[in-house]
Amino acid sequence: MTISGWLLVGMAAASASETRTFRDAAALFSTTTYMDHVRTLASDEYEGRGTGQPGNDLAARYISEHFKELGLKPAGDDGGYLQYFDARRGKKFDDKVARFEITALEKEWQPKRDWTPFPFSQAGDFDGPVVFVGYGIHSPDDGIDDYADIDVKDKVVLALRYEPRSDDPEAAIGGEKPSRHALFATKASVAKSRGAKAMLIANPPSRDEKDELYRFGRDGARETYDLPMIHIKREIAEELLRRGALPALAELEKSLGESRTSRSAELPEVHVSVRTGLSDNSLKTQNVVAVLEGEGAPSEYVVVGAHFDHLGIAPRMFGGEEKFIHNGADDNASGTAGLLEMARVLTAAPRLRRSIVFIAFSGEEMGLLGSKHWVDHPTVPLSGVKAMLNFDMIGRFADEAVLIYGAQTATEFPALLERIGSESGVTFKAARSLPGNSDHASFQAKNIPVLFPFTGLHRQYHRPEDDWELIRPEGAARILRFSFLALVELASLTDGPTWSDPKKAGVPTRDEDDPGRERPARRAATAPVAGDSPTSDTDAAPPPMPRVRLGVMPDYSEDDRPGLRITDVTADSAAQKAGLRGGDRIVRIGETDVRGIETYMLALGKVNPGDEVEIVVEREGERVTLKATLPAAPAARPKE
C-alpha cells in the first residue's frame, strides 16, 4: 500500500480526537528537541558513552527515561527497558600485578618501562630456562633455520624482532618487502610448534634507536596467538645473554645478517619467571529496548535501531597515550537522538498495523556486539521482525543526496524509496554496496530486510572533535521525515517486505559508495599486529594476500573465542564445495591453528593454488574435518 493510501486508512480509523494524519505527524519532528538530545548525549558529562564506562550507563538511563515518558512498553530484561549482556573486549593488562624476574638477580624490571606483554599474547604466568633462537625463523628452503639442532621444549625462547636484512632487495627473507617470517603470528606459531612455553622478543640494535616497547592497545588484544609473548627492552635481553655467556645483541644481529648461520643456544643457568598481568576484559553493558504496540498485527514488528555507545575516554586514534573524551556527536548521538525523536512522533500519530521496536544498542564500536546479542537473544519473537531501520551518523546532511544502504535487501525497497523520495522531497542515492559496518548487519545476517541512511564521513570521525556544534539539525530532521514515511509503509503492509539476498545478487560488501565508512570490528580484527605502536614498524606489515581463495565471509562482530567464525560461504566456491556452512568456526587449516583473522590469513598464505588442504571447523559443538581444493585468488581489480 502506498503512503497516500495508508494515510486515508489511518484517517478513517482514527477517532474524532485524533486530528493528526501521518502526513501531519511527519511535520512534527523538532530540530530543537533533536538538538537537546544531541547536546546532552554528546556532553562531557556522558564521557563519550564508552561501552562499560559510567557515561554509557548514564546514557542508557537517559534513553530509558524518555521511553518511559513516552509510554512505550518495556521490552528488556525482567520487565524493564534494559537488556544486559557481557561485552568482551580482548584482554586487559594490570601492571600492578605484573612481574618479570631473572633468577638470582635482585633487580626490579618495571612493566611498561622495561617490558610489556603483547596485546595478542596468551594470558597466564610462566617460568623456565631461556634459549636464544635468533630471529625465531624456521624456513630451511630459504636457508634460515633458527631452530635447527636446538631443543626448546618447555623452555622460554628469546628472539629478535623483524628478520635478518639482506643486500638483495628481492630476497624472500630480509628483502625490501617484509616476509611473513617477520610477523609476530609466525614467530609465535613456529615457537609453539617446537614446544616452547613462552616467547621473549627484543628490538635489534640497528632497527630501533629508542628501543620503544609495543604499546598495549585494545585493537590487537582481540586475537590471541599461540603462547605468552613479552616485549623486552634490550637491557633485559643483554642481561640474559651476558648471564648465558653469549655475545651482545649487536654482534649476534650482525652475524645473523651476514652468514644466516644459526646462533641459537641455550643460556645455561638462566631462568625467568613472569606474571603477565593479562586477563580477559569482560564489560557489563546494556541495550535499551521498548515497543510501541500495533493495532491489527501487534505480533509483527519493524525494528528502529541506533547505537548509543561511542569511544568513551581514550587516546586519540594513532596518537599517544594521553586520553581524551570522545563525545561522538555524529557517531552516534545523532542517530540516538533520531531514534528518540522517531519514538516521540510515532506515539503522537495514529497507531500503525504492526508494532515498532525501538532499540538503542551498546557495544557497536567494539564489533556490533549489542545488535548481535539482541538478534541472538531477541526480546520479541525474531520470526515476527519484518524489517529493520538503522540510524548511524545522520547528523551531517546538507543539500546533497542522502546515501541509503540496503535497498537490495527487499524486492519492494527500490519502488518504496522512489515513492518516499518524491513524497518527502528528499534526494537520495541507493548505495550499490552493503558493507557490514553497522548494526543493520546483525539483522541482515538473519535474512531481515534493512534500510540504513548515512550522511557520510568527515575529518572529526572517531576523534575528540566530533562535537554537537557541527551537527546540522535541519538535515537530520529531513532524514527523519523521510525515514518516518518509510516506516509508516513498512508497518502498514499486510505482507512483506520480501527478503532478497544481496550476496546472491552480487552486491559488494566492500563500501564502494563511501570508501572511508567505518568498519569497527573489521578494523579491530585486521589491524596490523603493531597497529597500536607509536612508531612505524616494518614487521607490522600485514601478511601478503594469499594466492588462493577459499570463499567465506568472516563474522567480524565475533567475540574472542579462538578460531574464525564465518557467516556464509560464496556460491560455487571452494568452501561451498568442501561443505563449509555459515555458522562454522574455522579452527585449523592444514598444519596451522586458526585463532583469528591474522592467523587465518597466515594459514591461507601457506597454500598454493590447486592444493588440497584439510580444514577443521567447529560445528554445533563438534569438530568436523573437511577437505578443500583451493583455486588461485583473482587478480586485484585495477584502480579506476
Account of the protein in words:
With 640 residues, the chain is α/β, with parallel strands linked by helices. It folds into three domains: 3-83 and 285-522, Zn peptidases (Aminopeptidase); 95-276, Glucose Oxidase, domain 1, CATH 3.50.30.30; 544-629, Roll (Pdz3 Domain), CATH 2.30.42.10. Helices cover 24% and strands 23% of the residues. The protein contains 15 helices and 26 strands. Strands 1, 2, 12, 13, 16, 17, 18, 19 and 20 form a nine-stranded mixed beta sheet that branches. β18, α10 and β19 form a beta-alpha-beta unit. Mean pLDDT is 87; it is low at 1-20, 511-538 and 636-640.
Task: Chart the SSEs and their pairings.
Layout: H1 3-13, H2 22-26, H3 31-41, H4 54-69, E1 73-74, E2 82-93, E3 99-102, E4 115-117, E5 126-132, E6 138-139, E7 144-145, E8 156-160, H5 184-193, E9 198-202, E10 229-232, H6 234-243, H7 249-258, E11 265-275, E12 278-292, E13 297-307, E14 312-315, E15 323-326, H8 329-348, E16 354-361, H9 369-376, E17 385-390, E18 402-405, H10 413-424, E19 428-430, H11 440-444, E20 450-454, H12 473-490, H13 520-526, E21 552-554, E22 564-569, H14 574-578, E23 585-589, E24 592-593, H15 597-604, E25 612-619, E26 622-629
Parallel strand pairs: 5-8, 8-9, 9-10, 13-16, 13-17, 17-20, 18-19
Antiparallel strand pairs: 1-12, 2-12, 3-11, 4-10, 5-11, 6-7, 12-16, 14-15, 18-20, 21-22, 22-23, 23-24, 23-25, 25-26
Helix pairs in contact: 3-8, 3-12, 8-12, 10-12
